[in-house]
């Protein structure tokens, strides 16, 4: 704990002393703060939320020239991303030291965690940015609203939304490893109908996934999305959305012949959702019904016989939801609802008969938001879930946000319980363990945000801790998954956002994460794998009087380990990216960037390759 205090104090001192530091996009407590949905399931002012939430806008993605959502997530506090190989490679996200399986991911309100995967985690590798309008990241548990998997955090991603006026944009770029990218999106309204559509395409020769390889592992990917809304009455609507991600990834696998292996994974994921809502009693009660489906297919081929890379995997989620918001009084809002979810999976390796599994769950929740005095918001709730295979589960949560001075200062604190039920692979025969219990956690955090110099300087600090029990891990004694682990994670998050001039924006995010195994035995008090203890992201953007923009992103990642016994050390590293954009004519802009400017040799996952110095250039257009 003393090292935590020393590092935290040092980082805060550096942030305050350096004009090149800035903060993440934590919603500030002013009237212009963005609305957030991950806290309550409904749009809520960031000033009224007691949990730590970051928002990445489409403009942020454009400024840093991110190709994948994983690129942008790396700049947030307490978020670690582990990618195996080049763009498109399996990308796991760890929030506040939690397992990647403990992060719930939503795209346009649809759960997209893979029910056919060994741990149910979402692979961020193929999620491109071209059609992404917004990313919201809640750091901490929130199972009262979202149920299973919301232990480490929730990532909610929105594609091109409907707009009232016609909006069009497109772009393309080319660069290192014969990488090409193109994207386009459009949105608008005609009478009672409004909608948005978009698409992104990417291809690259890539790099060898494993170090030491002579052949490149390429990636081809197409992403299409659409959203449509019909306002059939002043307070009644019907809306729908659909998403398709279709890609082919060449990769190297430890289960093949090494760095020059030739396995290919053909991956397709589509989601669809339809919802309808209305407002009753003069708008006092809003109600919404929805149905969503997630369908995932992965087919692997490998010329090597019995390589474990020849597979056919399918997963399906059917999700029904009923959500209500009742404004019972000016000082009291109640949210309540229920859901029913069915999951199915089918896995087959090396031509063997498919292993099939399924589960179903029903649940309901109640969340109350009180505003007892001016500037104070108290939120508390309870959830009850009933799983066919794991019985009933009850979760509690409470948080508060308080500003004594008109949102110039905001104090926050929260307590939340989270849980994750075993995946179909972990819990059902032939390889699963039917006796498994759900993972559980108790999370605490406390923080403060402060505005200075009007809105030119914003500071925030958060202390947090999470205690987890019944974590699921594969046992080489029984050769199946067991509840054998306890873990504790704690840390600090510091952020600074500054606008010294109207043309200059500076952002800095620092986090220290101490995530350790607390299971009695040989690995007691060892650091959890792939969780760097420290992370610092500095972002600077400046626009000249002539419209030319320059920017830089510096990320500094601390040491970590790639194994539970802490025998495989991954040294810390620093990456510098420089970028620029030049207006060519009205609504047309040329842009370019150079990643890993210093050509650092580093590892994110042991044995896997990373990009050296690489450059890209392109053009974008907007109407």
Short key terms for the protein model shown above:
single chain, disordered N terminus, 5 helices, Maltoporin, Chain A, five-stranded mixed β-sheet, mainly beta, 6% helix
Structural description of this entry:
By secondary structure, the chain is mostly beta strands. The protein has a single domain (about 1-620), classed as Maltoporin, Chain A. It is built from 5 helices and 33 strands. It has a 22-stranded antiparallel barrel. A hairpin with a 2-residue loop joins strand 31 (about 575-585) and strand 32. The radius of gyration is 24 Å and the shape is globular. The chain starts with a helix and ends with a strand.
Give the secondary structure arrangement, pairings included.
Elements: H1 2-17, E1 35-36, E2 44-45, E3 52-57, H2 58-64, H3 69-73, E4 79-83, E5 91-95, E6 103-107, E7 110-111, E8 132-139, H4 143-146, E9 153-159, E10 167-175, E11 179-190, E12 193-207, E13 217-233, E14 236-250, E15 264-280, E16 285-301, E17 311-329, E18 332-349, E19 355-370, E20 376-387, E21 391-402, E22 409-420, H5 424-427, E23 439-452, E24 457-475, E25 480-501, E26 504-517, E27 534-543, E28 549-557, E29 560-561, E30 569-570, E31 573-585, E32 588-595, E33 614-622
Parallel strand pairs: 6-9
Antiparallel strand pairs: 1-2, 3-8, 4-5, 6-7, 8-9, 10-11, 10-33, 11-12, 12-13, 13-14, 14-15, 15-16, 16-17, 17-18, 18-19, 19-20, 20-21, 21-22, 22-23, 23-24, 24-25, 25-26, 26-27, 27-28, 28-31, 29-30, 31-32, 32-33
């Amino acid at each position: 704990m003393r090292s935590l205090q020393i590092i935290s104090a040092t980082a805060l001192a550096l942030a305050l002393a350096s004009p090149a530091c800035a903060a993440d996009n934590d919603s500030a407590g002013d009237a212009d703060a963005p609305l957030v949905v991950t806290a309550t399931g409904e749009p809520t002012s960031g000033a009224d939320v007691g949990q730590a939430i970051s928002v990445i806008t489409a403009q942020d993605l454009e400024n840093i020239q991110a190709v994948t959502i994983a690129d942008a997530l790396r700049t947030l506090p307490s978020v670690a991303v582990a990618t195996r190989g080049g763009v498109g490679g399996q990308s796991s996200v760890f929030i506040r030291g939690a397992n990647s399986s403990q992060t719930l991911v939503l795209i346009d309100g649809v759960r997209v965690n893979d029910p056919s995967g060994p741990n149910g985690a979402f692979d961020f590798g193929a999620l491109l940015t071209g059609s992404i309008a917004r990313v919201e990241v809640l750091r901490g548990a929130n199972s009262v609203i979202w149920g299973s998997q919301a232990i480490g955090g929730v990532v909610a991603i929105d594609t091109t939304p409907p707009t009232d006026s016609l909006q069009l944009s497109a772009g393309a770029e080319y660069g290192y490893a014969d990488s090409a990218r193109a994207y386009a999106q459009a949105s608008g309204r005609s009478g009672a109908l409004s909608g948005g559509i978009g698409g992104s395409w990417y291809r690259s020769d890539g790099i060898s996934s494993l170090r030491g390889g002579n052949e490149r592992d390429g990636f081809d990917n197409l992403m299409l999305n659409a959203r449509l809304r019909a306002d059939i009455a002043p307070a009644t609507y019907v809306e729908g959305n659909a998403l398709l991600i279709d890609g082919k990834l060449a990769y190297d696998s430890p289960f093949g012949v090494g760095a020059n292996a030739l396995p290919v994974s053909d991956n397709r994921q589509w989601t669809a959702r339809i919802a309808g809502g209305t407002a009753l009693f003069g708008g006092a009660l809003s109600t919404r019904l929805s149905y969503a489906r997630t369908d995932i297919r992965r087919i692997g081929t490998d010329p090597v016989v019995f390589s474990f890379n020849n597979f056919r995997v399918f997963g399906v989620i059917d999700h029904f939801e009923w959500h209500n918001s009742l404004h019972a009084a000016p000082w009291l809002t109640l949210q309540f609802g229920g859901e029913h979810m069915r999951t199915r999976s089918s896995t087959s390796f090396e031509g063997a008969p498919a292993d099939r599994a399924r589960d179903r769950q029903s649940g309901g929740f109640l969340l109350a938001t009180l505003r007892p005095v001016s500037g104070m918001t108290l939120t508390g709730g309870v959830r009850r879930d009933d799983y066919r295979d794991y019985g009933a589960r009850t979760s509690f949560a409470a948080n508060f946000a308080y500003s004594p001075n008109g949102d110039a200062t905001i104090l926050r604190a929260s307590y939340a319980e989270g849980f994750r039920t075993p995946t179909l692979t972990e819990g059902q025969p032939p390889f699963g363990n039917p006796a498994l219990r759900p993972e559980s956690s108790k999370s605490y955090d406390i923080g403060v945000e402060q505005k200075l110099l009007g809105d030119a300087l914003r500071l925030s600090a958060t202390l947090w801790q999470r205690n987890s029990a019944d974590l699921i891990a594969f046992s080489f004694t029984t050769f199946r998954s067991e509840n054998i682990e306890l873990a504790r994670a704690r840390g600090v998050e510091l952020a600074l956002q500054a606008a010294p001039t109207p043309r200059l924006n500076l952002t800095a995010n620092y986090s220290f994460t101490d995530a350790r195994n607390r299971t009695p035995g040989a690995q007691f008090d060892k650091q959890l794998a792939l969780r760097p203890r420290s992370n610092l992201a500095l972002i600077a953007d400046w626009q000249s009087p002539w419209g030319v923009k320059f920017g830089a992103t510096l990320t500094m990642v601390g040491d970590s380990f790639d194994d539970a016994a802490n025998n495989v050390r991954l040294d810390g590293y620093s990456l510098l990216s420089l970028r620029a954009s030049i207006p060519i004519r009205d609504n047309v802009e040329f842009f370019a960037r150079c990643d890993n400017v210093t050509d650092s040799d580093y590892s994110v996952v042991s044995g896997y390759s990373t990009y050296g110095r690489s450059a890209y250039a392109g053009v974008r257009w907007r109407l």
